[in-house]
Amino acid sequence: MKVLLDGAWKGDVTDPGRTFVGTLRTGGLPGTAEGHAVQVVFQSAPERVQKPGQHGQYLLSCGERRWALSHFARSDVSDPGTRDEGRPQAWVAEVLDASS
Predict the structure, then answer these.
(1) Which range of residues forms the domain containing residue 45?
(2) Can you say how many angstroms the Cα of residue 72 is from the centroid of all Cα atoms in its chain?
(3) CB 39 within 8 A of CB 11
(4) 4, exposed or middle or buried, with CB in 10 Å at 0-12, 13-18, 19+?
């Protein structure tokens, strides 16, 4: 399931506590509605890993609920050379299991 978010990343790209902070633009996730506050973090393994699937995952949270994401990116990249992720913009999150 794809959901749209409006928001921006807070923190430096090298900061493990870096967080995307925004609002839900479109929904369908259980217990959520348009305009609800959301956060996305990248949760990674604390030690060095060998396989790509072990590197970590993006997690979307809204209130007490959390969902793993298979994809998280800006929805409209009009200029692929720019990476101003600290400015509020539209993002697409693809939720792995939206039923929980």
Answers:
(1) 2-77+87-95
(2) 5
(3) no
(4) middle
User: pLDDT, tens digit, for every residue of 47-90?
Assistant: 665 665 556 789 999 999 999 999 998 887 665 555 677 788 99
Asked, for residue 100, whether it belongs to a domain, the answer is no
pLDDT mean over 31-58: 79
Rounded to the nearest 10°, the torsion over CA 45, 83, 70, 96 is 110
Look up tokens 């809204």; give the residue: 62
Q: Specify the number of domains making up the chain.
A: 1
What is the C-alpha to C-alpha distance for residues 55 and 95, in angstroms, rounded to an integer?
18
Is residue 82 one of the residues assigned to a domain? no
Residue 87's nearest CA partner among 7, 32, 5, 4 is 7
Amino acid letter, residue 32: T
At CA 62, angle to CA 6 and CA 33, rounded to 5? 70
